[in-house]
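anyone seen this seq b4? input:
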Amino acid sequence: KRLYPRDDADASAGEREFLVRTESIWSGRAILDDRGDGDGDTAPPAPPPRHWHRQHDNLFALARRQSHGWLSWYWAEGLQLMFWRRAPDGGVIGAELERIAVLARIVGALPTTELADGRMELADSRGETVHQWGPMLGTPGTPDAVASLEPPLDSWQLRYYISPAQREALTRGVGAGLFLGVGALALALLGLAVYVHREYARRLRDAADRVGFVTRVSHELRTPLMNIRMYGELLEEHAEDDDQLRRARVIVAETQRLGRLIDNVLAFARHQRGTLVAAADRIDVEAAVREAVAKFEPALEARSIAVRLDLAPTPRVRAGVDAVDQIVVNLLSNVEKYAAAGGEVSVSTRQVNGHVVVTVADRGPGVPARERDKIFEPFHRANESLTGASGTGIGLSIARELARAAGGELALVDSERGACFELFLPVAGDEP
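predicted toks r here
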């Protein structure tokens, strides 16, 4: 029997009550389930995040898009439900669910687990409790856990309350667990700190042993090296022909190079031990620089590098002759390795305020911008593939430390071409 649309005059009292009770459906104010299977004339749209929404076009428009679904609306005692299905002739067949029957089925589906303490409640869409179980009495307050039912009853909730005694015990347990967790973490961090300290101390001892070994070996090499150099110089003085002279000069040059390497290694070892100091003699910088250049000039000539000197008279400085010699020689050694293509190096002195400045500038490729902040670091080396040069990577580091030990500074300054280093040494006072 069709109830809608029809003439109210032909409807019975029960049918009229039904039409009044379901007026929201026919007026488009009911909440329709738009999750159908899409076997209608038109493919249904993608479902929204909440599948239940208000359809203003009415049930029949929805029935053209899907074959069945749920309707929910509010009347009198609360939420009302109806399941509908589209008939083969295009009509809609629906069945209204009685609230009491729905509630009985829901309660029958609830778990029967006995609660030692606490309370479970089933609340309807108005938030009113329709069923509860558990020994906890009184007004529990805010639920400790809430779960919504599935559509079409997603406005109903299951609420769980724990007793004050359970809550206090749980809090104590969490506090104790937190304390134990923090304690375990602290012990783990302490153990890690002890391990790191021991490992660091072991590596320091290993490093000290290696430095000590290198220092001892370097000292042991000095005596035979001096003997080789001495005999090489004798051969150079008494050479009978050009071939003997050339060979003797090679021996002397190589012993000088090895001697510079040993000097750098020993200076680096002293720096690592914190014992690197510079003499505080009053020295003539011009003479010290001239002697260092003369010592290294044969090696530069062998690489076709011309030396241009511009040594102005300057006041005496407080430094060691050996320290100044080693700094200048290390700078010239870098020119030999990296700037031979420039064909020239200039060495000059001048006075700036309270310092004497020694400048060593070449016309080579210069120092790349990415390397400028690293060249004074121990063992740092530029890309060898660009120059073919080799070395230890401690020359510039030792040169700067020697300058600082004398109260001065060694710096890489900007230049239009090549690399330019400036050595600053403080002017000595009038005291002897």
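Confidence is low (pLDDT under 50) at residues 35-57. Residues 277-426 form a domain with the Heat Shock Protein 90 fold (CATH 3.30.565.10). kinda curious what u guys think
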